Amino acid sequence: MDMEGDKRLERLGEMAPLTAEEIDQILLELREKKAEQKIELQALPETPYQPEKLEAIGQKIKEATNQIGEIFLYIRGNGKVPIEQITDVIVPTIEEAAEIPHLYFLFKELYSKDEYTYRHTICVGVISAAIGRWIGLSPKELKELTLAAVLHDIGKTRIPESILQKPGKLTAEEFKEMKLHTVYGYELLRQIPGLPVTIPLTALQHHEREDGKGYPIGLKGFNTHLYSKIVAIADVFHAMSSDRIYHDALPFYQIMKGMHDDMFGKFDPNIILIFLNHMMAGMVGNKVLLSNGMEGTMIMVNPYDPINSLVKVGNSIHDLSKEKGIGIERVY
């Protein structure tokens, strides 16, 4: 990262939530909202979407992926974000996909190997919008969150392709430059008149973590916006679920367990619990392999401990929240 990059981060420090008046106001409203209304679990849906509807939405996701690819190329060449096209064309597709009861049924479309960077943008939008619905955001907030999620990685249009597409591990200098995509995105989006400040704020903060060990500023959870917390979860989940140039996709349950273990470190515990509940609900009825070598069927999700569910093995039922020596190794 050059001197200009260092100065950019210094300027950004002056715009942090505790110092910028407009961001201060957002955080104040967020704290007041949390104090007035605690986020609670929504009823878990039980009916999957019809196959033909999944196929239709899957095709729309493919089309949106191609469109976002063209938009990214346009921004890279012109430095301007066609916000109306994104709002009018891309966002409606994401909103429709996010209404599917269990995102598990969309996995085939969400995790296709082609055009990862562009598909990731769409899929983080879908997962974020779904989380927003699950925690009870208003229609206005949902639309704002969805747009913020679609634009969360827009700063990568300023990262050299040689870094974005590098097949091996990034050098220390390359990683410093890659981390600046949060800053670049913030700067790009702050230039758009009338755009809610939550949109650039999400681009800036989606790699911050609850324990303050994220980047680019190292803010702790109480200084990051709700949308940023949601997009952080969606971003990590989709990245770990996808085949990348430098790593294969991890098994679904392994990702769920890893995110659960980070509940009180990286992610907001209220939001991640709701996320895990809904995602694990999509697994009910699936065959599972237990750590003791036995195979069974997941029959119920414990809402307070979704990773350790009720599993039926033969004629017996095992409550994994109580049988601490046994866990799920794999979901089929």
Helix and strand string, N-terminal first? HHHHHHHHHHHHHHEEEEE
Mean pLDDT rating = 82
Count the beta strands.
5
Model regions low in confidence, pLDDT < 50 over at least 5 residues: 8-20, 34-47
Q: The CATH topology of the largest domain, please?
A: Hypothetical protein af1432
Shape: globular
Helix content: 40-55%
Spatial ordering of strands, largest sheet: 4-3-2-1-5
Give the termini separation. 44 Å
Which second-level CATH architecture of the largest domain applies?
Orthogonal Bundle
Class computed from helices, strands and strand pairing? alpha+beta
| Residues in β-strands, percent | 5-15%
Please tell me how large the radius of gyration is.
20 Å
Assembly of the depicted chains: single chain
